[in-house]
Every structure is written in structure tokens, then in C-alpha cells.
Amino acid sequence: MSMVRTVESGKKLAPLSTEYTRPVPTEGFLDRPRAFGRQGESGHHVGNGKIQQVKDEMTVPPWPPTSPLGGHARALPETGSEITRFWQTLKREAAKTRAACGAFEWWALGYLSVSGLLVLLFRENLKHPFRVLRSEAEAAAIVLALCWLEARYATRKQVHGPSFAASWWHYWRHWYPHLLFLYCFEELANLMTLVTPDWQDPKLIAFDHWLAGVHPSVWLEQFSTPFRNDAMQLVYFTYFTYLLILGLILYVRREWYAYWSVMTYSMVGYSIGYLVAVFFPVESPWFSMAGGWREPLAGGPFTAMMGLIEHFGRVRGAAFPSAHVTGATAALWGAWRYRRWLFWAMLPVFVLMCVSTIWGRYHYVADILGGLLTGTLGYLIGRWLMKRKGAVPTAREAELH
After folding, report:
1. What is the DSSP letter of 101?
2. Cβ atoms of 204 and 294 closer than 8 Å
3. Who's near 134: CB < 8 A, 6+ residues apart?
């Protein structure tokens, strides 16, 4: 809608209609224009002059514009198609999940990826390679889902206050690493002959004999009594408690950086040990030296308990390096860094635990040395990882300050 005005130099202008004005002849016509419609304020006229049309700014109508398809334009979709919106939502949630992961998840998901890649490369050596891949994919999906859920409910907690759901996912987000360690260890049963088809025990048997001059597990049998056997099985069992005790103290004290540091030390140490076991499979003296002892180890309730655990949870292989020693070493380094008094309390039990792995015929001396090395590597690499930006997930960084 434009507005028109007629201009003649030197004469006072009169207002014209805002809607429409018929051009007026310059000579021999009326002194006043004939305007059709309402008289406007922006149009002016003189009786004897030239006509110039000037476009003024549009006025906004009081009703919404109509669509060629019928109805108002504002009723049409504001963003792209449903597929576009779906991918936008998916990308947004993926970014939130990535931000919710910390150093522990970086390394854990990396280990599962490397393990899966090895399965693909050497799948002809496995009976059901895609079943293993599916299992690892499910484990990775559970890890990501826990990170996403905990971050989601932590955000809601800041707005709506505490809730059972927030506490529930917070708990599982912090304690699932122990289940992941167990899963990765048990999965080794499928991977022992993945790369190297032959057991490497003869090499370690020769190393032990070279180092000690005897076969250590056979030599220790002369000191065996039911009481000593039971005591050794008890200290062997303490391996399961080191990280639990240290983690519980840090969890209760809400020291999240320290908590995730010790979990990361353990994850790095375990994963290095597991990959070594895949490339260098070792059965353990329990299998390779069976028949070399006079009799089975007799004991009391702790011997029976460990026998039950070994029956249902034993993995044939994965003896080198010792996962027991690896995990205990990483936890011990964590105690040294964050709870020095606990380190000194755990140290003598740790030494006895190392001896018990040989006494109980679970490991070679070489396994113990390998576990000390991988556990220490886990600590050193884990410390470096925890210095990276985002090592403690953003959902908990606010609680650090």
C-alpha cells in the first residue's frame, strides 16, 4: 500500500488520501484534488503543478498474513522436517552424553573399542566373534546410558531439589566401574586364543625356575597346613576389598576428583594387563602344572569360599600379568596419594596377598612382577589423564567448588 502526494513549488500543501489518489491534470482543472477513500496525513496537493509519487513505508496490518495453502502462515512448521528435528535432538543429546563422560569413560570405551577391533581382525580364531562384538557394544551402551542419566537427573536436582531418581542414578554412575572390571575380566575367556593360539606357560615356568632355582608353588607345598592354607586363602580374598574400601571412603567424603582418579588408575592398569594377556596367553600353574603336587590344598571355610568363587568365576588364562596384583597395586597407589594412613594399613596385607597367589597355585612369580608393573603404569597414566580438561565430568565439577 503506497501513499501519493502532489507537489508544486511555492504553494502550501494540502493532505491527500492514504489509499488512492487519481492523478490531476496540471491545467484547467479544479483547484482541489478529488480523493477517493480516507484523507491521509502524508499526501499533499496543489492545484497547478507536477505530480510526483513517493512511496512511504508500509503499515503492518492488524491480522496475520495468510498462506497460499489456506490458514495463517504462523500455523506452518517453524523448523524443518521431522527428520531434521530428530537429528538435531539426537546431536544435542549426544553432546550432553559426551560432556557427561570423564577420563574413566574415555579409557574404558577406548579399551572396548580396541578389543572389538582385535575381534574383527582375528575373527577367524573365534567361534562366535559377532556375539562377542555384540556383548562389548552392549557394555559400551550401558556405560553411556549411565553417564547420560546421571547428568540428566543431576541437572533436574539443581532445579527441583533432591529426588530418589537423582540419588539412584548418582549411586550407579559412581559404582558401576566395579562391575565393568568384572565384565572385562570374564570376557577374556573368549579372547585367550584370539591372537596367539598356543599357551605360553612353559616360558614362565622356565623364568621362575631360573629366578628362584625351584618351582615356587611346588616348593611352598612343604609348608602347607589346613590353617596356613585357610589364612592364605583369606588374604588372597582381600584383593576384592582394596578398591572398595578406598572408594567408599572417598565417596562418603564426596571427594569426586580423588574418587574418579583411583577408578581411572585401576581401569588403565586392568586394560593394559588384559591386552597383554590377549597377546601372551598364560593358563596359570593350576592348569599347566596339575599333577605336580602331592595333594590338593586342604583348609577351612575360606578355602571352601575361594574354591566356590574359582569354580564359577575362574577364567582359563589371563594369568599374566596377575589381575589381582594389578588392581591391588593401582588401589595401593591411590591410597598413597589420597589416604596415606590407609596405604600403610593395606601394605602388609598386600605383600601377603602377593605370596598367596603363588601359595594357592594361581600364579607364577612372573605374573606378580607383571602385575606390579601394569598397576604402576595404570597409576602413572591415570594421573596424566586426570589432569586433562573434563577428566571429572561436568555434572560433578560444580560440586567440587
Report:
1. -
2. no
3. none
- DSSP annotation of 370 reads H
Q: How far is residue 351's CA from residue 346's CA, in Å, rounded to a whole number?
A: 9
Average confidence (pLDDT) over 337-357: 95
Burial class (CB within 10 angstroms; exposed 0-12, middle 13-18, buried 19+) of 337: middle
Q: Can you tell me the distance from the alpha carbon of 366 to that of 23, in angstroms, rounded to the nearest whole number?
A: 108
Residue length of the chain: 401
CB of 364 closer than 8 Å to CB of 285:
yes
The amino acid present at 136, given as its one-letter code, is E
Query: What is the rounded CA–CA span in Å between residue 236 and residue 233?
Result: 5
Local structure of 248: helix, strand or coil: helix
Of 205, 112, 96, whose CA–CA distance to 152 is shortest? 96
Q: In the predicted model, is pLDDT for residue 176 greater than 90?
A: yes
DSSP states along 63-99: SPPBPTTSSBGGGS-SSS-HHHHHHHHHHHHHHHHHH
Alpha-carbon gap, residue 84 to 374, rounded angstroms: 47
Instruction: Indicate the angle between helix axes 164-187 and 256-279, nearest 10 degrees.
Output: 20
DSSP string, 111-148: HHHHHHHHHHHTGGG-SSHHHHHHHHHHHHHHHHHHHH
| Residue ranges covered by each domain of the chain | 1-61, 91-191, 198-390
- Other C-beta atoms lying within 10 Å of the C-beta of residue 163: 12
> Would you call 396 helix, strand, or coil by DSSP?
helix
Q: At what angle do helices 226-237 and 301-313 cross, to 10 degrees?
A: 50
Grid cell locating 27: 491545467
Burial pattern 37-54, b for ≥16 Cβ within 10 A else e, equals eeebeebbbbbebebeee
Beta carbons of 372 and 325 less than 8 angstroms apart: yes
Q: Cα(268)–Cα(376) distance, rounded to whole angstroms?
A: 10
| Cβ contact 116:133 at 8 Å | yes
Cα-to-chain-centroid distance, residue 223: 48
Of the listed ranges 27-31, 89-93, 99-103, 338-342, the least confidently predicted one is: 27-31
Cis peptide upstream of residue 177 (ω within 30 degrees of 0):
no
What is the per-residue pLDDT across 368-387, written as a single tens digit (0 to 9) for each? 999 999 999 999 999 999 99
Q: Is the pTM of this model over 0.85?
A: no
